[in-house]
Amino acid sequence: MLAPPLTPPDQLQTQLRTQGYAVLDAAAVSELAQVPLDGLQAWAPGWNSLPPDPHLKDGGRYRRRRHASFVADGAQVTQVPHRAHWQPVSYNALHGGMERWFEPMELAITHDPVWSRLLAGLARVASALHGAQPWYVEAHQFRIDTTDGIGRPTPEGAHRDGVDLVAVFLVAREGIKGAETRVFEAQGAAGVRFTLTEPWSLLLLDDERVIHESTPIQPIAQDGHRDTLVITLRRGSFQDP
Q1: Which pTM was predicted?
Q2: Could you tell me which of 71, 66, 161 has the C-alpha nearest to residue 119?
Q3: Please, what CATH class does the domain formed by 9-173+187-235 belong to?
């Protein structure tokens, strides 16, 4: 496994502007969110109760998830009524063009003050890149497991999400091999590959400039799985049909 190219916190904006991506270790994430790391780690049991994803078009049973939506305006974070997740086919050829309803994230996370601080911290990053404004935020809890012998973190392949900033947090990685992260220029040939292994390390992506994917996972122990928290921030509005 290739170690991730970590970005010092004081170089975050420079890295995002020049390369279109940045990787932070857990200590830097704690600094970004202005919360103690154990406040983030306390959420990990919530991934044990994720319901199956009912929308996988490849017929797989390897993905479980929950979803919630928010508006982050400065330090103010407001959850909006539960809504479907939707992407156009141009961004997600496999699952685009359909309204996908998932069970909502549990209140133990979304009503935790640490949650609002985390979203506000990501909003500061997005505003530094694109100017201060309200950010339309979608959060996805994922568990990819080896129920089918193999699990696919990105069954749609290398893609963009149709937003402005993508944050991929590794929550846990248990009994698996694979899940290599790959980031490529959207309009070029340059790319980087590495594997996130530290809980609460973070990959940040300028979605307009790069595409990304994670390779499949295979079991090396019983009940192998990979847990992530994916948060997207978009200007102007949520993506809707």
Answers
A1: 0.96
A2: 71
A3: mainly beta
